[in-house]
């Protein structure tokens, strides 16, 4: 689908709810640029800068990176993408971040993945990531063709330090206290669309259908 107007969306959901997996499908099907806050932070950590060390200390404890640092990083990334359509994955995670985003961009739709915490814990401990690209695998759900290696580049996959069970518990707590209020923020603006389920393959057709309808409407309005 070729979009005639810029379309900007956010994907929200607890850690492990499938944001990265669904974002990959949305970006492939609808051509939105996928911007992941977690991937952006991990690139800084890989670069081993002073900022990277500060970020790693928050992430390894399962805590959120401070709002001012996070908003500055994401907004500068968005500015660099210019006038394109995008899908923001992992940002905003607090109401203050949502307000910073609003001050600079208007968000057309927010996709909320509502997946029970019970389902999530099992998934995260079997997640494998290709750090340079952000491609995600799972030993049960979508295993790589060769165990431990990325399908596209053949490079090694890693297990994220913050996917340890005790850190996952802390991340779910941060989600409950700091990110859930963001749902209310977008609900009151009338842009929130919630998709509930325990399996990405069952949730995905509903998201796909919703975006097809929504984006055809955006195109018609411009035509
Ligand atoms: N078993 C199972 N695993 C899934 C499903 N959807 C995604 N995953 C895996 O669960 C993990 C978390 O998904 P991810 O997209 O990274 O979630 P995010 O943390 O919200 O970005 C990854 O290893 C995925 O491959 C699913 O429906 N079932
Ligand atoms: N918007 C954000 N605000 C603060 N911290 C963030 C944000 N996005 C990511 N982080 C930090 O990076 C970690 C990993 O994020 P992410 O890769 O999006 O995790 P997940 O895919 O499991 O939801 C988070 O647990 C948090 O410490």
UniProtKB/TrEMBL annotation:
Its main location: mitochondrion. Keywords: GTP-binding, Kinase, Mitochondrion, Nucleotide-binding, Transferase. GO terms for molecular function: AMP kinase activity; ATP binding; GTP binding; nucleoside triphosphate adenylate kinase activity. It is an enzyme of class 2 (transferase). Residues 127-162 form the Adenylate kinase active site lid domain. Residues 126-163 are annotated as: LID. Its EC number is 2.7.4.10. SUPFAM superfamilies: Microbial and mitochondrial ADK, insert 'zinc finger' domain (SSF57774), P-loop containing nucleoside triphosphate hydrolases (SSF52540). Residues 36-65 are annotated as: NMPbind. Pfam families: ADK, ADK_lid. Gene3D superfamilies: P-loop containing nucleotide triphosphate hydrolases. Consists of three domains, a large central CORE domain and two small peripheral domains, NMPbind and LID, which undergo movements during catalysis. The LID domain closes over the site of phosphoryl transfer upon GTP binding. Assembling and dissambling the active center during each catalytic cycle provides an effective means to prevent GTP hydrolysis. This is GTP:AMP phosphotransferase AK3, mitochondrial. The gene is AK3.
